[in-house]
Protein backbone atom coordinates (compact mmCIF):
# COMPACT_ATOMS: atom_id res chain seq x y z
CA UNK A 1 0.00 0.00 0.00
CA UNK A 2 1.49 3.35 -1.03
CA UNK A 3 1.66 6.20 1.45
CA UNK A 4 0.27 9.72 1.19
CA UNK A 5 2.38 11.21 3.99
CA UNK A 6 5.02 12.72 1.72
CA UNK A 7 6.66 12.35 -1.65
CA UNK A 8 9.74 11.45 0.44
CA UNK A 9 8.09 8.08 1.02
CA UNK A 10 8.21 7.14 -2.66
CA UNK A 11 10.89 4.93 -4.12
CA UNK A 12 13.51 5.71 -6.74
CA UNK A 13 12.70 6.00 -10.42
CA UNK A 14 14.16 3.00 -12.34
CA UNK A 15 16.13 5.29 -14.67
CA UNK A 16 17.75 6.99 -11.68
CA UNK A 17 18.59 3.65 -10.10
CA UNK A 18 20.02 2.44 -13.38
CA UNK A 19 22.22 5.54 -13.61
CA UNK A 20 23.65 4.81 -10.17
CA UNK A 21 24.38 1.22 -11.12
CA UNK A 22 26.11 2.37 -14.31
CA UNK A 23 28.68 4.42 -12.37
CA UNK A 24 29.33 1.54 -10.00
CA UNK A 25 31.78 -0.09 -12.40
CA UNK A 26 35.46 0.22 -11.62
CA UNK A 27 37.07 3.20 -9.92
CA UNK A 28 36.69 6.93 -10.51
CA UNK A 29 38.01 10.17 -9.08
CA UNK A 30 36.64 11.28 -5.73
CA UNK A 31 35.21 14.49 -4.23
CA UNK A 32 33.50 15.59 -7.43
CA UNK A 33 36.49 15.35 -9.74
CA UNK A 34 34.81 12.62 -11.79
CA UNK A 35 33.32 13.11 -15.25
CA UNK A 36 29.82 12.22 -14.06
CA UNK A 37 29.78 15.19 -11.70
CA UNK A 38 31.01 17.46 -14.47
CA UNK A 39 28.20 16.17 -16.69
CA UNK A 40 25.62 16.72 -13.95
CA UNK A 41 26.80 20.30 -13.46
CA UNK A 42 26.45 20.88 -17.19
CA UNK A 43 22.91 19.44 -17.07
CA UNK A 44 21.96 21.99 -14.43
CA UNK A 45 23.59 24.75 -16.46
CA UNK A 46 21.49 23.71 -19.46
CA UNK A 47 18.41 24.34 -17.33
CA UNK A 48 19.48 27.53 -15.54
CA UNK A 49 22.18 29.09 -17.68
CA UNK A 50 25.93 28.66 -18.03
CA UNK A 51 26.92 31.27 -15.47
CA UNK A 52 25.98 29.38 -12.30
CA UNK A 53 27.91 27.61 -9.54
CA UNK A 54 26.73 24.13 -8.52
CA UNK A 55 27.52 22.23 -5.32
CA UNK A 56 26.00 18.81 -4.67
CA UNK A 57 24.99 17.79 -1.15
CA UNK A 58 22.93 14.96 0.33
CA UNK A 59 19.81 16.63 1.74
CA UNK A 60 17.53 19.61 1.35
CA UNK A 61 18.45 20.82 4.82
CA UNK A 62 22.12 20.73 3.86
CA UNK A 63 21.41 22.67 0.67
CA UNK A 64 19.48 25.33 2.58
CA UNK A 65 21.84 25.63 5.52
CA UNK A 66 25.16 25.53 3.68
CA UNK A 67 23.96 27.76 0.85
CA UNK A 68 22.48 30.39 3.14
CA UNK A 69 25.39 30.23 5.58
CA UNK A 70 27.77 30.94 2.73
CA UNK A 71 26.02 34.28 2.18
CA UNK A 72 25.53 35.36 5.79
CA UNK A 73 27.59 36.98 8.49
CA UNK A 74 26.67 35.80 12.01
CA UNK A 75 25.05 39.15 12.82
CA UNK A 76 22.75 38.97 9.79
CA UNK A 77 19.33 37.39 9.33
CA UNK A 78 17.07 35.54 6.90
CA UNK A 79 13.48 36.71 6.48
CA UNK A 80 10.98 33.98 5.63
CA UNK A 81 7.40 32.81 6.12
CA UNK A 82 6.64 31.32 9.52
CA UNK A 83 5.78 28.08 7.70
CA UNK A 84 9.17 27.86 5.94
CA UNK A 85 11.08 24.59 6.15
CA UNK A 86 14.18 26.37 7.47
CA UNK A 87 12.05 27.78 10.29
CA UNK A 88 9.85 24.79 11.17
CA UNK A 89 11.48 21.57 10.03
CA UNK A 90 15.25 21.91 10.24
CA UNK A 91 15.73 21.82 14.01
CA UNK A 92 17.38 25.26 14.16
CA UNK A 93 20.17 24.05 11.87
CA UNK A 94 20.61 27.37 10.06
CA UNK A 95 20.93 29.36 13.26
CA UNK A 96 23.31 26.81 14.80
CA UNK A 97 25.51 26.45 11.72
CA UNK A 98 25.62 30.08 10.58
CA UNK A 99 25.07 31.95 13.83
CA UNK A 100 22.59 34.10 11.93
CA UNK A 101 18.95 34.64 12.90
CA UNK A 102 15.66 33.72 11.25
CA UNK A 103 13.02 36.45 11.15
CA UNK A 104 9.59 35.03 10.39
CA UNK A 105 6.51 36.58 8.84
CA UNK A 106 3.10 35.15 9.84
CA UNK A 107 1.23 33.90 6.79
CA UNK A 108 -1.88 31.85 6.07
CA UNK A 109 -0.87 30.66 2.61
CA UNK A 110 2.88 30.19 3.03
CA UNK A 111 3.72 33.19 0.84
CA UNK A 112 5.36 36.52 1.65
CA UNK A 113 5.88 39.75 -0.27
CA UNK A 114 8.10 42.79 -0.07
CA UNK A 115 5.55 44.65 2.01
CA UNK A 116 5.82 42.00 4.71
CA UNK A 117 9.61 42.30 4.77
CA UNK A 118 9.60 46.10 5.17
CA UNK A 119 9.09 46.11 8.94
CA UNK A 120 12.44 44.36 9.41
CA UNK A 121 14.31 46.96 7.40
CA UNK A 122 13.96 49.56 10.16
CA UNK A 123 16.72 47.76 12.05
CA UNK A 124 19.29 48.30 9.28
CA UNK A 125 22.38 49.91 10.75
CA UNK A 126 21.28 49.30 14.34
CA UNK A 127 24.00 47.26 16.06
CA UNK A 128 21.49 46.05 18.66
CA UNK A 129 19.53 44.05 16.10
CA UNK A 130 20.21 41.33 13.56
CA UNK A 131 20.60 42.77 10.08
CA UNK A 132 18.17 41.39 7.46
CA UNK A 133 20.24 40.15 4.53
CA UNK A 134 18.33 37.37 2.72
CA UNK A 135 14.69 36.78 1.81
CA UNK A 136 13.99 33.05 1.61
CA UNK A 137 10.87 31.61 -0.01
CA UNK A 138 9.77 28.07 -0.82
CA UNK A 139 8.54 27.07 -4.27
CA UNK A 140 6.29 25.06 -3.90
CA UNK A 141 5.46 26.44 -0.44
CA UNK A 142 4.91 24.21 2.57
CA UNK A 143 1.18 24.95 2.34
CA UNK A 144 1.01 23.81 -1.28
CA UNK A 145 0.76 27.27 -2.83
CA UNK A 146 2.84 28.74 -5.65
CA UNK A 147 4.55 32.03 -6.32
CA UNK A 148 3.90 33.32 -9.82
CA UNK A 149 6.85 34.29 -12.00
CA UNK A 150 5.92 37.94 -11.49
CA UNK A 151 5.78 37.56 -7.71
CA UNK A 152 9.27 36.03 -7.63
CA UNK A 153 10.58 38.81 -9.85
CA UNK A 154 9.04 41.46 -7.61
CA UNK A 155 10.61 39.88 -4.51
CA UNK A 156 14.02 39.71 -6.21
CA UNK A 157 13.77 43.39 -7.21
CA UNK A 158 12.68 44.37 -3.70
CA UNK A 159 15.58 42.41 -2.20
CA UNK A 160 18.17 43.96 -4.47
CA UNK A 161 16.81 47.48 -3.98
CA UNK A 162 17.35 47.00 -0.25
CA UNK A 163 20.80 45.38 -0.47
CA UNK A 164 19.35 41.94 0.18
CA UNK A 165 19.41 38.63 -1.66
CA UNK A 166 16.66 36.18 -2.67
CA UNK A 167 16.88 32.46 -1.93
CA UNK A 168 14.44 29.79 -3.08
CA UNK A 169 14.02 26.51 -1.24
CA UNK A 170 13.23 24.35 -4.25
CA UNK A 171 12.56 20.99 -2.62
CA UNK A 172 9.54 20.72 -4.95
CA UNK A 173 10.73 23.12 -7.64
CA UNK A 174 9.93 20.68 -10.47
CA UNK A 175 6.29 20.47 -9.38
CA UNK A 176 6.11 24.26 -9.43
CA UNK A 177 7.70 24.59 -12.87
CA UNK A 178 5.29 22.04 -14.34
CA UNK A 179 2.26 23.57 -12.63
CA UNK A 180 3.04 27.03 -14.02
CA UNK A 181 3.97 25.62 -17.44
CA UNK A 182 7.31 27.40 -17.46
CA UNK A 183 11.03 26.51 -17.28
CA UNK A 184 13.64 26.53 -14.54
CA UNK A 185 15.38 29.41 -16.29
CA UNK A 186 12.24 31.53 -16.55
CA UNK A 187 11.33 30.87 -12.92
CA UNK A 188 14.77 31.23 -11.36
CA UNK A 189 17.43 32.84 -13.54
CA UNK A 190 15.31 35.35 -15.41
CA UNK A 191 13.54 36.58 -12.27
CA UNK A 192 16.77 37.53 -10.51
CA UNK A 193 16.98 34.79 -7.85
CA UNK A 194 20.41 34.71 -6.20
CA UNK A 195 20.45 31.24 -4.64
CA UNK A 196 18.49 28.05 -5.27
CA UNK A 197 18.27 24.84 -3.28
CA UNK A 198 17.58 22.50 -6.20
CA UNK A 199 15.67 19.45 -5.00
CA UNK A 200 15.24 16.07 -6.63
CA UNK A 201 14.68 13.60 -3.79
CA UNK A 202 10.94 14.27 -3.62
CA UNK A 203 10.60 13.69 -7.37
CA UNK A 204 12.21 10.34 -8.07
CA UNK A 205 15.81 10.59 -6.88
CA UNK A 206 17.26 8.53 -4.04
CA UNK A 207 19.45 11.08 -2.31
CA UNK A 208 21.01 14.38 -3.21
CA UNK A 209 20.22 18.04 -3.74
CA UNK A 210 22.16 20.87 -5.35
CA UNK A 211 23.12 24.31 -4.11
CA UNK A 212 22.98 26.58 -7.15
CA UNK A 213 24.39 30.08 -6.94
CA UNK A 214 23.24 32.44 -9.66
CA UNK A 215 26.02 34.87 -8.76
CA UNK A 216 29.53 33.41 -8.75
CA UNK A 217 30.90 36.40 -6.84
CA UNK A 218 28.68 35.41 -3.92
CA UNK A 219 29.66 31.76 -3.87
CA UNK A 220 33.45 31.88 -3.95
CA UNK A 221 33.67 30.34 -0.47
CA UNK A 222 30.91 27.77 -0.91
CA UNK A 223 33.34 24.88 -1.39
CA UNK A 224 34.79 25.58 2.04
CA UNK A 225 31.37 25.87 3.68
CA UNK A 226 30.38 22.56 2.08
CA UNK A 227 33.48 20.82 3.45
CA UNK A 228 33.03 22.31 6.92
CA UNK A 229 29.40 21.28 6.74
CA UNK A 230 30.45 17.65 6.19
CA UNK A 231 28.74 17.54 2.79
CA UNK A 232 31.69 17.06 0.43
CA UNK A 233 30.91 13.51 -0.68
CA UNK A 234 33.91 11.35 -1.50
CA UNK A 235 31.90 9.22 -3.95
CA UNK A 236 29.98 12.15 -5.35
CA UNK A 237 29.39 10.43 -8.67
CA UNK A 238 26.52 8.46 -7.11
CA UNK A 239 24.62 11.69 -6.46
CA UNK A 240 25.72 13.28 -9.73
CA UNK A 241 24.60 10.28 -11.78
CA UNK A 242 21.09 10.75 -10.42
CA UNK A 243 20.98 14.35 -11.58
CA UNK A 244 22.22 13.33 -15.03
CA UNK A 245 19.36 10.84 -15.37
CA UNK A 246 16.86 13.19 -13.72
CA UNK A 247 17.62 16.08 -16.08
CA UNK A 248 17.88 13.95 -19.22
CA UNK A 249 14.91 13.39 -21.51
CA UNK A 250 12.61 15.46 -19.29
CA UNK A 251 12.37 12.75 -16.64
CA UNK A 252 11.98 15.46 -13.98
CA UNK A 253 9.02 16.87 -15.91
CA UNK A 254 7.31 13.49 -16.41
CA UNK A 255 7.65 12.69 -12.71
CA UNK A 256 6.36 16.05 -11.52
CA UNK A 257 3.52 16.04 -14.04
CA UNK A 258 2.27 12.68 -12.80
CA UNK A 259 2.49 13.77 -9.16
CA UNK A 260 0.59 16.98 -9.91
CA UNK A 261 -2.05 15.24 -12.00
CA UNK A 262 -2.60 12.66 -9.29
CA UNK A 263 -2.96 15.49 -6.79
CA UNK A 264 -5.78 16.98 -8.84
CA UNK A 265 -7.41 13.57 -9.26
CA UNK A 266 -7.19 12.94 -5.52
CA UNK A 267 -8.75 16.31 -4.70
CA UNK A 268 -11.54 15.79 -7.19
CA UNK A 269 -12.28 12.34 -5.76
CA UNK A 270 -12.32 13.61 -2.17
CA UNK A 271 -14.67 16.50 -2.87
CA UNK A 272 -17.72 14.26 -3.16
CA UNK A 273 -17.39 12.61 0.26
CA UNK A 274 -19.30 13.95 3.27
CA UNK A 275 -17.09 14.80 6.20
CA UNK A 276 -14.29 16.01 3.94
CA UNK A 277 -13.84 19.62 2.84
CA UNK A 278 -10.94 20.74 0.69
CA UNK A 279 -9.10 23.73 2.11
CA UNK A 280 -8.39 24.82 -1.46
CA UNK A 281 -7.87 23.31 -4.87
CA UNK A 282 -4.34 21.84 -5.07
CA UNK A 283 -1.83 23.70 -7.22
CA UNK A 284 0.68 20.85 -7.30
CA UNK A 285 0.85 17.47 -5.54
CA UNK A 286 -0.17 18.46 -2.01
CA UNK A 287 -3.81 18.29 -0.95
CA UNK A 288 -5.01 19.95 2.24
CA UNK A 289 -8.44 19.03 3.55
CA UNK A 290 -10.53 19.18 6.70
CA UNK A 291 -11.78 15.78 7.83
CA UNK A 292 -14.01 14.61 10.63
CA UNK A 293 -11.86 13.29 13.48
CA UNK A 294 -13.43 9.82 13.48
CA UNK A 295 -12.87 9.56 9.74
CA UNK A 296 -9.21 10.48 10.16
CA UNK A 297 -8.73 7.80 12.82
CA UNK A 298 -10.37 5.15 10.67
CA UNK A 299 -8.45 6.07 7.53
CA UNK A 300 -5.12 6.13 9.36
CA UNK A 301 -5.56 2.49 10.32
CA UNK A 302 -5.01 1.65 6.66
CA UNK A 303 -3.34 4.69 5.07
CA UNK A 304 -0.49 6.92 6.21
CA UNK A 305 -0.94 10.70 6.03
CA UNK A 306 -0.25 13.68 8.26
CA UNK A 307 -2.67 15.63 10.44
CA UNK A 308 -1.35 19.17 10.10
CA UNK A 309 -3.63 20.82 12.65
CA UNK A 310 -5.22 18.73 15.40
CA UNK A 311 -7.52 21.59 16.42
CA UNK A 312 -9.14 22.03 13.01
CA UNK A 313 -8.61 18.44 11.76
CA UNK A 314 -6.62 19.69 8.77
CA UNK A 315 -4.81 16.88 7.00
CA UNK A 316 -2.21 16.80 4.24
CA UNK A 317 -2.16 14.19 1.49
CA UNK A 318 0.77 14.08 -0.92
CA UNK A 319 1.01 12.28 -4.25
CA UNK A 320 4.28 11.17 -5.81
CA UNK A 321 5.88 10.46 -9.16
CA UNK A 322 4.79 6.83 -8.87
CA UNK A 323 1.27 7.39 -7.53
CA UNK A 324 -1.46 6.02 -9.79
CA UNK A 325 -5.25 6.24 -9.84
CA UNK A 326 -5.61 2.78 -8.35
CA UNK A 327 -3.70 3.90 -5.24
CA UNK A 328 -6.07 6.83 -4.80
CA UNK A 329 -9.17 4.82 -5.62
CA UNK A 330 -8.39 2.43 -2.74
CA UNK A 331 -8.27 5.39 -0.34
CA UNK A 332 -11.52 6.83 -1.71
CA UNK A 333 -13.29 3.45 -1.61
CA UNK A 334 -12.32 2.94 2.03
CA UNK A 335 -13.41 6.48 2.95
CA UNK A 336 -16.79 5.91 1.30
CA UNK A 337 -17.21 2.58 3.10
CA UNK A 338 -16.56 4.30 6.41
CA UNK A 339 -19.17 6.95 5.60
CA UNK A 340 -21.63 4.31 4.43
CA UNK A 341 -21.74 5.68 0.90
CA UNK A 342 -21.09 2.27 -0.67
UniProtKB/TrEMBL annotation:
Keywords: Pyridoxal phosphate. Coiled coil: none annotated. It holds the Pfam family Beta_elim_lyase. Its cofactor is pyridoxal 5'-phosphate. It comes from the Bacteria. The keyword RNA-binding does not apply. Residues 4-292 form the Aromatic amino acid beta-eliminating lyase/threonine aldolase domain. SUPFAM superfamilies: PLP-dependent transferases. Belongs to the threonine aldolase family. This is Low specificity L-threonine aldolase. It comes from Tissierella carlieri.
Amino acid sequence: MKMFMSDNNSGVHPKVMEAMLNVNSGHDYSYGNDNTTKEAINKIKEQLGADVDVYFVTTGTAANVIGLSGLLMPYEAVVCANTAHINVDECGALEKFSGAKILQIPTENGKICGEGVKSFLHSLGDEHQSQPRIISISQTTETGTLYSIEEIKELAEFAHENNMLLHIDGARIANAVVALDTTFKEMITDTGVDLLSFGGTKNGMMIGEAIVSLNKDLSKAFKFYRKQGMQLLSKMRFVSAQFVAYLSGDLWRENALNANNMGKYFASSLSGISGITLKSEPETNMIFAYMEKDLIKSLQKKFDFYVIDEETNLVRLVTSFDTNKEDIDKFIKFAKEIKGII
